[in-house]
Amino acid sequence: MKLVTFGHRRGAHVGALVDNRIVDLTRAGVANAMTDLIRMGRSGLASARKAVREGKNMAPLGKAKLLPPVTPSKILCCGINYKSHADENPNARMPEEPFFFAKMPTSLNGPDAEVAIPPMSKEVDYEVEFAVVIGKKLSRASEADVMPAVFGYTLLNDISARDVQFKDAQITLGKNFNGFAPIGPCIVTADELTEPGRVHLKTRLNGRTVQDGSTADWLFPLPRLLSFLSQVMTLEPGDVVTTGTPAGVGYFRKPQVFMKRGDVVEVEGDGIGVLRNRMI
Fold first, then answer.
1. CA angle centred on 71, ends 67 and 75, rounded to 5°
2. CA-to-CA distance for 207 and 57, rounded, in angstroms?
3. Can you list the domains of the chain with their CATH numbers?
4. Which of the chain's termini has less CB crowding within 10 Å, N or C?
């Protein structure tokens, strides 16, 4: 299934995408929030599928305002996990272990939302990231145990203020301006997207393709990333973990390309869809 969170006159609702319509799972009594549905596990998905089969509580997709599909307690992003991205960065060293940084809750943003360029940056960059939504609590998990704990997959645009990020190694500040973590447009459940290591990814800036890669280029596969993280911190249902970005980011292009007011950036993943945002 493809699951979304969307705006409703009574607040945010959970839905399932069926063609160009949304089955309102909140009105169907399945779950009030995506994290609730995730915590319900198999029983929640079974109830959601039953609501989809019944075909009630439908709404046109075009009239719905999509929100971030999940509100995670943690957003953890993997850096330098694509061979192509490591190759394009002249200062990159091939990591011996996965490298992570955090996006804060205030950076969360949704599909078709506006992203404000901060006054203190002139080098705002894009990064398409294939992202994992955690379904079950993971702590000190082995690589063999992590994949059954994955609820599904989505996209994240790891927007970065490069001039802030690279000044005095301020990666946390450069990655965490308000709205710098658009997520969406949906969560594809793990039973539907069965080969996360073979997903084609693209970024388009004003219609021009600037990133074109595949998760097949990962340095560290998904079980390694999630197991490694779980040795350090407990991953909770609804947490989002990203897996790095392929080559083509604006900072390393020649000449460099940065986003400006009025630009439209789209990140796309096969089987997931397009996450679109406008810079203001």
1. 120
2. 35
3. 2-67 (2.30.30.230), 75-279 (3.90.850.10)
4. C
Query: What contacts 132, CB < 8 A, 6 or more positions away?
Result: 150, 153, 196, 222, 226, 240, 241, 242, 243
H helical segments located in 166-253: 171-174, 222-232
Q: What share of the chain is helix, strand, coil (3-state, %, to 5)?
A: 25, 35, 40
Instruction: Render pLDDT for 86-124 as a digit per residue (tens, 0 to 9).
Output: 667 766 677 789 999 999 999 999 999 999 999 999 999
Residue 249 structure tokens? 């980011």
Residue with tokens 């596969």: 221
Residue 43 has pLDDT above 90, yes or no: yes
CA distances from 17 to 193, 205, 268 (A): 15, 26, 17
Distance CA(58)–CA(13), nearest Å, equals: 12
181-189 and 150-157 beta bridge pairing? antiparallel
pLDDT tens-digit profile of 23-37? Answer: 999 999 999 999 999
pLDDT in the model for residue 245? 95
- Half-sphere exposure of residue 208, counting CA atoms within 13 Å on the CB side? 9
Cis preceding-peptide flag for 72 (omega within 30 of 0): no
Tell which residue, 67, 7, 16, has the closest CA to residue 45: 16
User: CB of 4 within 8 A of CB of 185?
Assistant: yes
